[in-house]
User: Fold this.
Amino acid sequence: MIKEEFLSNVQHTTTRLIAHFNAAKIFLDQFGYIGKLKVWYNAKGLANILSFRELEQHYNISYRTKTTNGNFIMHTEQGDIVFRPNEMGLPYINLKQNINALCLIATVRNNYEGYTKKEITHANKARSALAKIGHPTEKEFKDMVRHKTITNCPITDQDISNANAIFGPNLPGIRGRKTPSKPEVVRTDYVAVPKSLILRNKFICLTTYVMHVDGIPFLVTTSRGIKFITVKHTPLQTTSHLTQSMTRVIHFYTQAGFVVRTILMDGQFEQLKKHLFNVVINTTSRSEHVGKIERRLRVIKERARAITAGLPYQRMPKTILIELIKFVILWLNAFPAKNGVSTTVSPREILTRQSLDYSKHCKAEFGSYCKVYDDPVPSNTLTPRTQPTVCLGPTGNIQGTYKFFSLRTGKIIKRRQFKEIPMNDAMISTINNWSPRDDHGHLVFADR
Assistant:
């Protein structure tokens, strides 16, 4: 028995369950699903009663009196969920107080649209049957059904397809089967940039600005003419840190065959004149701003807001927000700039001689839920081969490596192999509650 707010696909059944209590017994004729678990429903019930036998079919559960203090620990891909004993010794968990435990509710509610109750029920049966026969591949499972390898199997080919459409790929199968593939050979196909274009724009004038997004400072530079943008998260804005950041930018242009002659900056950069040599630094007065870069900043803000508007999260960890700004800059540099020096060659191609490849750099949306491959050492263990992450976009290298926010550690990891999974309520709750202090929902851009 369980509260209806956590259930999906509640339905009546002719087979009733009789529940015996100290003072009475009740008859239950309704059931629903909490994730992949079939549970009985009683409208007057106060507690969520789950079967450990049913849970064990989907999750690993451990219990040791000495090491777990009498707690039952359910090991899920999003982390461990602890069932603590109450005063009567019964293990329980409060879903409203422990929001992270909502990984139990793994359904994708929006994916129910377009399916009848009967189709959803059969899809649940197909996913349950998949676990019962040892998580074969989708092709193997469909072949079993088509050729009637298992007699009296009620599952159809369409039930399997519907289960994949509603629930996404079979995660236990992915975790168990994923093996490293041979890395592709890195092909260095450089873009041929007209020599005349480089010679005409050899001497660079940079404009520099410190942009704040939800209080997080970024050092942004753009070059006049070429309009290549760089961005650097600068938590410390001391003279030494700003000098170090600007030196890296100048060195980047030098490696590409360009010479930075002039840098236009706000008045806060006045002290940098003593530390940046062979460069003319022009600073504005207190009430002035560098006009050219302000227009580019407006484009950055528009793109960032557009991306966040499409994300289901109410809050965004600081790490993800920082990578969002970098992601926006990566793609702004990948297209020929309006009023730039070329209508066919992008700023990225001019500076790096490299373009982006759709098949390598457009595999997943920013902020999407992905399972990334881990290569455990040693590899001959039962350790899960994937971990849950949030996609942070491509790094921009030639082979198409992606950055991810690990939902286990909160750190950024880089992987080449991954699979995008439909977003579910559990993932949204996990990200929203990752860190209450990192409350970045509606982006606020400011000078300070």
In short: The chain has four domains: 4-104, 109-177, 195-352, 358-446. The chain has twelve helices and 18 strands. The first helix runs from residue 52 to 56. Residues 193 and 350 are 6 Å apart (CA to CA).
